[in-house]
Amino acid sequence: MARTSTIAAVGDTVAFRPSRQRPVRVRARTMQADSHFQPHHHAWSQLAYCASGIVQVTAEQHAGKGDEVTFIVPPSRAVWIAPGARHAVHVLEDAQFRTLYIDASATPAGWSRCRVIVVSPLLRELIRALDAAVAGPMPRPREERLIDLVLDEITHADIQALGVPLPHGQAGDKRLRALCEAVLHAPAQRATLAEWAAEVGASERTMARLFRDELGTSYQRWRQQAILAHALPMLARGVPISHVAAASGYASDSAFTAMFKAAMGQPPSHFQARGAAAA
């Protein structure tokens, strides 16, 4: 049986806390699969990134509003968490976890909501280099230059639509929540929105409006994100693409691969190779 460990968020010690003088601090940890960080929030921004492995991050899109989104984060992506946004982390596969704590004063203009960014090769190497400042003394001028480059690379990173939003807490429509939960529990079922709507006692038009008004997306777009969230951990475990495609409701590998590549910019084999190599 897999071992589950819950890690309290109070581990954000003074040694890693950012400031105006040192606006970016890196904390590196090796995390076992099924480890959890309890829900918490910071006064600063955070970039959650894995050098290897996969984590699931659930975070408020806007601090204090309860509008949670679940992100699945493979090594080529990172989640930006805005200052004050409540969030929790679940490690899906053994991970080399890298957390960048970023002072609120260094938050890019307009970045008041959580998002997924593409981790460029340059940003990956910058994070690795800045992590050396924790392991041993680094001349301040070099650290300052690395911090400037990290912030610049984050600001100019490509944004990736890779989140599964859910209805807002108690205020969310119960029919929409029931439909979303049903889809998440049966990702292989290729039911139409009209068919799902009938199961929760609503019309297709009503549910389409609720997706748009409460989640800011269409059902088709939302379901694609749910499928990606379901498929990525399977690929990381080395599950054959044909099995992942079938479990995601696709009749052919080619159709699944086309959808996946259009959404992620890489074929599923790219993420499967990472998982197989780690295994």
Q: Notable features of this structure?
A:
279 residues, alpha+beta, Arc Repressor Mutant, subunit A, 10-stranded mixed beta sheet, 9 helices, 39% helix
The backbone outline, from C-alpha atoms, is globular
Q: Element order, helices and strands? A: EEEEEEEEHHEEHHHHHHH
**Overall pLDDT level:** 85
The total tally of domains equals 2
Radius of gyration: 19 Å
Q: How many separate helices? A: 9
- Assign a percent range to the helix content: 25-40%
Write the layout of secondary structure elements.
Blueprint: E1 5-7, E2 24-31, E3 35-40, E4 45-60, E5 68-73, E6 77-81, E7 87-102, E8 115-118, H1 121-135, H2 140-155, E9 159-160, E10 163-165, H3 174-185, H4 193-199, H5 204-215, H6 219-236, H7 241-247, H8 253-264, H9 268-278
Parallel strand pairs: 1-3
Antiparallel strand pairs: 2-7, 3-7, 4-5, 4-6, 4-7, 5-10, 6-8, 8-9
